[in-house]
Specification:
6-stranded antiparallel sheet; secreted; cell wall; 985 residues; mainly beta; Cell surface protein; transmembrane; peptidoglycan-anchor; 2 helices
């Protein structure tokens, strides 16, 4: 839409129509724009928008609303400074626009679902009154099949190898002028472009193919370079960063390009809705929306037809933009269900997409300067519309029926503007219907009587045949044979049945019947037939039928001619009626659950027969196939054979079976002969040479069991056990390492472990496997040289492990018995260094690391006694007791206490030096001994039954003294006795 900008601002200032040569400028404007845009990913896209014209004339001319048409229609408005907008009421939504500068006209399309809007205004520029239909071309892309959708389920309905809908569907984009820049951004559709005739650049508008109303404005300089591109959302304005700071106003699916300049600036290069080539300073535009149309294929009862496979052909939905070209496809039905039907293609099988969809649809044209609305309502699909002119809300003129393309005589005058009504209808494309109607027939009549010959004999009616090259035409039918008659042509010439064709009486209307006349033949020709039959029966071993019998027949025919005057008959030769005198080779059918007993019966051979042959009956015997029988490890069927699976038949050989699938049994696992688990659902190999014998397959419990016991060999008790389970032939991830470590940390020692180091492999025999890990208490031996430390860990690397018990230290494993010999005078003073003797006893101990208990060995020593010791000679001292001259050997044991012996000396009274304890000879005086101090001999145990140590204890000294007194007494008595005896002599 074009505007001459004198004073254009956002407040919609009143526009002034400028006069040129005392006449009002006539502007030819497009009144209608097609709705929406469709996003075409790839497809051959080419289309042209149809153009309608609006003429703006002087004040005495007639104003007509802007409208839409597939052809070039004209509307005229006579006014100064007026503007208008056109829109369509619909079931969904509508939009209108009215933007004007001077006197201009604009049109827009709105509403995806059956709605249109357009605008019109006057212009001061001088233009031609006819629309330009320049020839333009460009490459196109393939239509995305996603825009061919099934009317019921919205699935793709494009052609395929299995459908009768041809691949003739297409919706194509416009062919753009060669000098026009096109927005090739993915998902965008270029719908308008103007040229700046002063600066040489272009303003190009595009939008999203999903019809969201967003506009993309691109400024192109004179060299074809992109200066700026801006996104203009709905209901917004954006200035381009070009030389003119062009403003793009995007309202609700319509808008204006404003140059902010004076005079003639813009020339339309291309517009999907406006084909005027005028020079103005502002240009209105319409943003496309998506529209749809449906193609149906129906029979004479308006029911959807079906294809050769009996599948219903449902309506196909195409989506496109107003003004795009479209084509539709035709089902290929030769030899299909609709053979002997002819196709009537609709006039709108291809063309330009139209926004008109339904009866009752309303189109409105609004002139905002005058508040006048002209509206139309669609009355029928012939294009008749009613019209009204409203001033505000008041109806000021109307017409109940305006024919397609017609102009109502009823008008309205306001402010020197005459408003009229011109029907804007474009042939609707929303309902494209292909009709498939039955052909007529060739009907035989008796030429002499005029009576029909087909009564009771439908076979005498010959329905027309399809023309394989044109589904809308029929071939001339062959004439049929009627016994006793012969057919004739229109000139009375005899025709040969089955050989000659008869012309259809009205080829342009192949649904009409054609009459053919027959004449009685003086020779009555009859036919004799004989049929030879072969029946092949398929039964089991008990004679029960397992498959439908196969029947073949050969029919022989001969003519018998009878002269109606002489009644003489003549028999013709026998001829095969159906073309072959042999029964064909018949392959025996594959019968589920059965196989042929005899391979020789896989095919029944061909047999040639003649009219003298008798009927034959063949019997093919089948046996029941074997089964795959799941059994337990004992060979017993599982669940009473409820899981038995019959062998599948070989689909290509009635005498063979294939490997059956392994059935799934809850809680059971199938295994092969080696115990390896099998997968339910997979095939199990059988002996194909024995298709009637059963095959057993072993199942085991899905969880096979293993028990691992940990035994304390020291106590014979079981420390713990692990119960494992797993799939047959699978390997357990259980290992004994951690458990063994747990016990060795507690003081055990591993004796043996027969559990596999890499994990046990579960068997497939339902028998539990047993494994034993033997452990014993670890026993440590301690000696005085290698003692323990009570309370400390036996193993320093395991501080939380067993501890050394009491009695394992060195002092508990070693014992020393000491004998000390002191040399003292009467006063107990040492007169000589003491002699010390020791005997050391040792023993070992064993410690149970688990219980902490200790066991000791016997005390041992290298010498169990103290050796004898000779008392030393001490100058100036003499032994008080001569028996002390030698300290005798003393036996001791581990229980003995330490021994202390005091050897007593006394000083010599004179200077005679005698041996200790012995008075010197010739020394008559008695040596005085001071009574020695007796030291108690300490022992660590009672030894009453042991010998007293000589001269070492008080008891010993008392006994010696007593013995000395007794001996002195005896010696005295004997001396007296001897003295008396001597005197008596």
């Amino acid at each position: 839409m074009l505007y001459n900008r004198n004073k254009l601002n956002k407040n919609n200032d009143r526009k002034i129509l400028r006069k040129v040569k005392k006449n009002w400028i006539v502007v030819s404007l497009a009144t209608f724009a097609f709705i929406g845009s469709s996003y075409v990913v790839s497809g051959n896209v080419n289309a042209k928008a149809s153009v309608n014209e609006v003429s703006v004339q002087n004040t005495n001319s007639v104003a007509d609303d802007a409208h839409s048409s597939a052809a070039s229609d004209e509307s005229s408005v006579s006014s100064a400074g007026s503007s208008s907008s056109v829109d369509v009421d619909s079931k969904a939504s509508d939009s209108s626009s009215a933007i004007q500068t001077g006197i201009t006209n604009s049109s827009s399309s709105s509403n995806q679902n059956e709605a249109i809007s357009s605008s019109a205004s006057s212009s001061s520029a001088s233009v031609s009154s006819s629309a330009s239909n320049e020839s333009i071309s460009s490459s196109s892309a393939n239509l995305d099949s996603s825009f061919l959708r099934d009317g019921d389920n919205s699935s793709s309905s494009s052609s395929s190898a299995n459908t009768t809908v041809s691949s003739g569907f297409s919706v194509t984009d416009p062919d753009y002028p060669a000098n026009m820049w096109v927005d090739k951004t993915q998902g965008r559709y270029t719908f308008s472009a103007v040229q700046d005739v002063q600066l040489g650049g272009q303003i190009v508008l595009s939008t999203d193919r999903n019809g969201d109303g967003v506009v993309y404005a691109t400024s192109i300089d004179a060299n074809g370079n992109v200066v700026d591109q801006e996104t203009v959302p709905k209901n917004s304005s954006v200035n381009l960063n070009d030389q003119r700071q062009t403003t793009i106003n995007n309202y609700d699916y319509y808008g204006v390009i404003d140059s902010h300049g004076e005079g003639s600036i813009y020339k339309i290069i291309y517009d999907a809705s406006d084909k005027i080539r005028v020079y103005l300073n502002a240009k209105s535009f319409i943003v496309p929306k998506l529209i749809s149309q449906t193609t149906s294929y129906v029979d004479q009862n308006n029911k959807n037809i079906v294809d050769v496979d009996g599948k219903e052909i449902k309506p196909v939905v195409q989506y496109g933009l107003n003004g795009q070209k479209y084509t539709t496809g035709e089902p290929k039905l030769v030899n299909g269900y609709y053979t002997k039907h002819f196709q009537v293609s609709p006039s709108n099988a291809s063309g330009i997409m139209s926004p008109f969809y339904y009866v009752g649809q309303t189109v409105k044209t609004f002139f905002p300067d005058s508040n006048v609305t002209v509206q139309y309502t669609l009355l029928d699909y012939d294009g008749d519309m009613s019209g009204q002119i409203l001033d505000g809300t008041q109806v000021v003129a109307s017409d109940s029926k305006i024919p397609k393309g017609g102009v109502s005589p009823n008008t309205y005058l306001k402010s020197n503007i005459i408003y009229n009504m011109r029907n804007p209808y474009i042939d609707q494309t929303s309902n494209i219907v292909y009709h498939y109607l039955p052909f007529g027939s060739l009907l035989p009549y008796d030429r002499d009587t005029g009576q029909p010959l087909w009564n009771g004999h439908d076979e005498y009616k010959k329905v027309y045949e399809n023309d394989p090259n044109d589904y809308s035409k029929a071939l001339n039918p062959y004439v049929v044979n009627i016994p006793g008659y012969y057919p004739v042509d229109t000139n009375g010439n005899r025709l040969t049945p089955g050989k000659d064709r008869y012309p259809i009486s009205d080829p342009s209307n192949p649904d009409k019947d054609t009459i053919i006349y027959y004449v009685k033949d003086p020779v009555n020709v009859s036919h004799e037939e004989k049929t030879v039959n072969r029946n092949i029966n398929y039964v089991d071993s008990n004679g029960n039928v397992v498959a439908t019998a196969h029947n073949d027949n050969v029919t022989f025919d001969r003519t018998i001619s009878t002269d109606t005057i002489t009644n003489e008959t003549t028999q013709g030769n026998w001829e095969v009626k159906n073309g072959s005198s042999s029964f064909p080779v018949v392959s025996s059918p594959v019968v589920p659950g059965y196989v042929l007993r005899n391979d020789s019966q896989k095919t029944i051979p061909a047999v040639t027969v003649n009219p003298s042959s008798s009927d034959s009956n063949e019997t093919v015997t089948y046996d029941k196939v074997g089964s795959l029988v799941p059994v337990d490890t004992a060979g017993n069927p599982i669940d009473n054979g409820s899981h038995n699976t019959s062998y599948p038949n070989d689909p290509n050989d009635a005498g063979k079976v294939t490997n059956p699938g392994i059935p799934s049994i809850p809680g059971k696992t199938p295994v092969d002969k080696d115990g390896n688990p099998l997968t339910p659902g997979s095939n199990y190999p059988i002996d194909g040479t024995k298709p009637t014998e059963d095959t057993k397959i072993t199942y085991v419990d899905s969880n096979q069991k293993v028990k691992v016991s940990y035994i304390d060999s020291t106590t014979g008790k079981t420390l713990e056990s692990a119960d494992l389970s797993g799939q047959p032939q699978s390997t357990s991830d259980y290992r004994t390492t951690d458990t063994i470590k747990k016990y060795t940390d507690q003081g055990y020692k591993l004796v043996s472990d027969n559990y596999p180091a890499n994990g046990v492999k579960f068997h497939s025999d339902n028998q539990e496997q047993d494994f034993t890990v033997t452990l014993e208490h670890k026993v440590d031996t301690v000696t005085p040289d290698n003692p323990g430390t009570p309370g400390q860990p036996i193993n320093p690397d395991n501080p939380n492990g067993p501890k050394w018990s009491n009695g394992t230290d060195k002092d508990s494993l070693s014992k020393t018995v000491t004998r000390t010999i002191n040399y003292v005078d009467q006063n107990g003073n040492k007169v000589h260094p003491s002699t010390t003797q020791t005997v050391t006893f040792t023993r070992s101990a064993t410690v149970d690391e688990v219980t902490g208990q200790s066991a000791y060995g016997n005390w041992t020593t290298e010498n169990h006694s103290f050796s004898s010791i000779t008392s030393p000679h001490i100058n100036g001292y003499v032994l008080i007791n001569s028996d002390d001259s030698t300290i005798s050997v003393l036996n001791v044991n581990e229980d003995s206490s330490d021994v202390i012996i005091n050897v007593n000396y006394r000083k010599l009274i004179n200077n005679h030096h005698n041996n200790p304890g012995k008075p010197s000879k010739g020394n008559p005086h008695v040596i005085q001994y001071s009574k020695p101090k007796l030291n108690k001999h300490y022992n660590n145990s009672d030894n009453g039954d042991k010998d007293k140590l000589p001269q070492t204890g008080e008891s010993n000294e008392s006994s010696v003294q007593l013995m000395g007194l007794i001996l002195l007494f005896i010696s005295s008595v004997l001396s007296i006795f001897g003295f008396r005896k001597k005197q008596s002599k």
